[in-house]
Amino acid sequence: MVKVRAARPAEAEDLTGLVMRSKAHWGYDAAFLAACAPELRIRAGDVTARRVVVAENGRGEVVGVASLEGTPPRAELGLLFVEPSAVGQGVGRLLYRDVLRRAVELGVRRLVIDSDPHATGFYRAMGAVPVAEPAASAASPAAEAGGTALVRFEAAPVPLADWARAWTGGGRAVHLGNVGEFNAQFADATLDREQRPAHHYACLAAFYSPHPAALVLPRPVPRGWTELVCRQLGWTGVEVYDGLLDADPGLAEAVRARPALAALLTGSGLPLVPWGRTRAFGRLAGRPWRDGELRYESKSAAHGLFGRILADGGHPGIVLPRQWRVDGRWAAARMLAARTRAGESTVLKSEHGVGGSGTTVLTPARVRAAGGARAVLRRLPRGPLLVEEYVGGAASRGDEGPRDLTYDGFVDEAGRAHEVGGAVMEVADGCYRGATVGPGVVPGWAEKSLIAFGAAVGRELADSGYRGWFDVDFVADGTGRLAPTETNLRLTGPSIAFMVAARLDALRGAGHLVRIVDRVELGARLPEAQLDELCAALARGCAELGAVFVPAIPTGAFEPAPWLGVLVAARGREVLDAAEALVRAEALAVGAMFGPT
After folding, report:
1. What is the tens place of the pLDDT at every residue in 183-204?
2. Cα separation of 468 and 463, whole Å?
């Protein structure tokens, strides 16, 4: 295993030799290397002054060297060279990330990199951004001798986000993929009893915090998946405990049924993070279960909470749609028919549901096409129904701005509410499809209202006794106002994107946009080895665009109608969109190799 340590003055001559061998690896001639030698020489006095570190393998051999030079807030990556025999083994990546980490500790906010032309692909892949400013050494004697010019890059080192440090204390955590267990506690008719989809979504446990120590999963996951995720996000030492359940959704109870595993996970001293709170999780974690702490998972209870917050008149940018709880199906049919005759669109909701399950948007045209209100109701799952006023879209604002937005935050164990931020969701016909987070994603006209109202909900949840992650979902009306539609007292797809954005910003520099896409259709069911190959190819293809690809949900690839959940990240919207398009096209095209699904 390769590790980084401080260089020693006595190593200076040997390190100079490593630097020259690494430079020669790119095929430069003797005259050019001789011209480079004075610039690349490391003297004994440089080791401390230039903050030189080395990468050392398990045999104690030095296989790489890097330096961090200058004073905050601006510094330079002076050296980054790898022994030719170790190229391609992750040594450069390890050294670069160490430089970025030390830059954060020193207070550096602008890291300048003057790259050899042969190394530009590496720095792009590491998240550095090319800049138009010419490299300082481009006109040096070495450059002139070789007829080559250095290429300037920059990175913006930042510490882990404040909210992320508050979430798990800034350290590693144990992640419990109890999605099915969380859903099952509500016994809602719109939720799958077997929780098959939930067991796929349990793979999102990999991203419950910016750096997991262990993943606990109900179903087996491909080993190649965890290896790629760890490589993309710079994780090491992540333990995976999978295949704990056959059918029953109770993951916390499955862990408790294995005393040695339960003791290992709960006795590690690390935070134990679930998808959502359950009574069984409370028993596993030794945390008292508070009756009613999840009451605002109910859509009618959340609507009541929103109304109480708005009663003080302090949120002019928020509008609350009317909602009625109906006594039975015929009452719902009569109300729907009356609204249809009046030309009103209507939203039918169950009390619970995830990802839009149990939510149906009905325009008058759709009701008539279905054969009337009673025919519509007969096709919906049994269970209590809410009838809600439909909030019109954003067309009258004269823009193509987002329609569906969300606020994410959490309440810590001391009862303090923390803001994470806002995101834009992709929703089709009431069903969640994904979300994008990052700088500038939430438009200016919505941001202030969204943040203020989300924070108010967080305070109310804290006062009610709730502890954990939450979100508030909104739809935008035609006048620039937001209508809150529900709150989720658990982790969510957008929360996963926030976690990955926080990790990538700390790992690669500030400014990442991250998009989570729930379902990317595959053209064929793939053997595990071929799925690994596809994901590795997508990672390379996205890197060439300047983006990062992370497979988020791999187990859907083995379904009869195969699919993947994915994350893509970039520093600009155009690159982000291009990366998503590439992933979708390549995933669908894989069917051409294997024939019909």
Report:
1. 988 876 555 555 667 889 999 9
2. 13
CA distance 302 to 317: 18
CA pair distance 244, 481, nearest whole angstrom: 46
DSSP letter for 390, please: P
96-121 pLDDT per residue, tens: 999 999 999 999 999 999 999 999 99
First to last CA, the chain: 41
Element (H, E) at 352: none
Task: Specify the amino acid at residue 277.
Answer: R
C-alpha closest to that of 208 among 496, 558, 556? 496
3-class DSSP state for residue 484? strand
Q: What is the pLDDT, as a whole number, of residue 394? A: 55
For 380-447, strand residue ranges (E) read: 386-389, 404-411, 417-428, 431-437
Sheet holding 129-130, edge to edge: 3-6, 52-56, 62-71, 74-82, 110-115, 151-155, 129-130
Question: CA-CA distance, 80 to 91, in Å (whole number)?
Answer: 10
What's the number of CA atoms in the CB half-sphere (13 Å) around residue 338?
8
359 with 351: CB under 8 angstroms?
no
pLDDT, residue 396, reads: 42
Distance (Å, rounded) from C-alpha 551 to C-alpha 571?
Answer: 19
CA of 440: how far to CAs of 210, 425, 484, 539, 570, in Å?
21, 14, 21, 25, 13
Cα torsion through 15, 21, 22, 23, rounded to 10? 110
Instruction: Give dist(CA 81, CA 53) in Å, integer.
Output: 11
CA angle 420, 426, 431 (to 5 degrees): 110
From 201, 127, 197, select the one nearest 495 (Cα to Cα).
201
- Please state, in angstroms and rounded to a whole number, the distance separating the CA atoms of residues 361 and 491: 25
- Residue pair 561/567 in contact (Cβ under 8 Å)? The answer is no
Half-sphere exposure of 133 (CA within 13 A, CB side): 11
* pLDDT in the model for residue 67: 97
The count of residues in the chain is 597
Give Cα 279 to chain centroid, integer Å. 27
User: CA-CA distance, 23 to 25, in Å (whole number)?
Assistant: 5
Phi, psi of 465 (to 5 degrees): 105, 0
Number of Cα atoms under 13 Å in the Cβ half of residue 34: 3
Which sign does the torsion angle of CA 282, 286, 287, 288 carry?
positive
**Residue 280 C-beta-side C-alpha neighbours within 13 Å:** 22
Burial classification of residue 40, based on how many CB atoms lie within 10 Å of its CB (0-12 exposed, 13-18 middle, 19 or more buried): middle
CA–CA–CA angle 560, 562, 565 (5° rounding): 145
